[in-house]
Amino acid sequence: MKRNSFIIKTQNSFFLSKTYLYYAIIIVILLKPAIIEDILFLDTLFNAFRVIVSICYIIKMVLFNKKIKKDWMIIASLFLIVLFSTIISHGNISKPIAHFLPGMGLIAFILADKNATYNKISAIVNTGIILLVLNFLTVVLYPEGLVYRVTNPELKIWILGQKQELGGFLIPLIFCGLALNYFDAYWRKKVICIVCLGVLTLILEQPIGALVCVILFVLLLFMDKYIIKINKSLLIIGIIMIFIGFQYICFNFDDLYYIQNALGKINTRGLSKVRTLNIRFSMWQFAWQCIFNHPLIGIGNLSVKEWIRLSNLQYISVLDNLYLDILFTGGLFSFALFIWLIKRCFNTFIRLWNERKIRYMGYCIFVLCVLFMEGSQYVPLVFLVLSVNCWFRNLYNQANDMTGVLRK
């Protein structure tokens, strides 16, 4: 396409520049490949760099922007509520910092220079592809994992962490690739590469929830011409209905023999799906009890000692359900902010919903929201997707050289 030719010329030279290498280093620091959590020295080093880099870019964003973007402020408010709740509950303060600050830093990294939005998002996609390739190779070469977790030697850890963590990295990476592909056909092959590589890795690692979400996304792409009239309101209703269904199963799982029999026949790495779901549903039931007791600001990130005392369950740092984790740690105030953020995320594309590539991005957000129901993905890339309203307009204006097209 003629309108995209200047971008292709730019990227061919920019990919080899020192600035691009600098972007890649910053991105790796903020994303922090999950395997690093199981290497004590590197984990400490990366955490220190993540905090420093995040704070530096947040300061730069504040200094070089006339006003702070609303979506970034929503995430910052989420962080402050959870942090406050954690402090008054004498919980683990490092958890909310680790969960939210790198995501806030990554968004600030994008917003600090709006004229570099295209190059920074492209750097994220290319760096993400490299990490995906390395992760795939480690899964193939080391099927039992590269390292083992001291607290749970049964867990298999690869470059991007254990199998449950891959979906939170893969789906946002697909979204960023789709955002670039909207303006430049150059990225189409890379998006296909990400999807294929992701599916192959998921088949090998066997995280059922993430694999189902990616397959659902692919099905939505193939069925798009039949469901072209579907809008973001129906997608949001679908997310709500799925959430209600998950909670119904949670509280009635012991009586749902057909579901248990079906799950028992699924052979995956690690524990059986029936056992893992029983553990997860026990955590969710405990979470609901705490939510009813602390409805407004939640109970924060509990310390190990307090978690065991209140729940009589083995300590788990997150609830494996992002919606419930937000409710649990930050109460109704945080949950309302989180839902508002998702709504704004969908609203970014409402004016362009009739365009096929925009709907593809909407489907990606939908499956990401479905993924939240089986994992607590406090991943910087997830926050980048949810704050798309902050940066997509800059990307749109830069790629088309049409300032103000999507301004309110």
Automatic annotation (TrEMBL):
> Which keywords describe this protein according to UniProt?
Membrane, Transmembrane, Transmembrane helix
Indicate the transmembrane segments per the record. 20-42, 48-65, 72-90, 124-146, 166-184, 191-222, 234-258, 322-342, 363-386
What is its membrane topology? Multi-pass membrane protein
Lineage, top-rank taxon, reads Bacteria
Q: What is its main location?
A: membrane
Identify the InterPro entries for this entry: O-antigen_ligase-rel_domated, WaaL-like
Q: Please report the stretch or stretches of sequence annotated as the O-antigen ligase-related domain.
A: 194-339
Gene Ontology CC, one term: membrane
Subcellular location, record wording = Membrane
In the UniProt record, does the keyword Membrane occur?
A: yes
For this entry, the protein name equals O-antigen ligase-related domain-containing protein
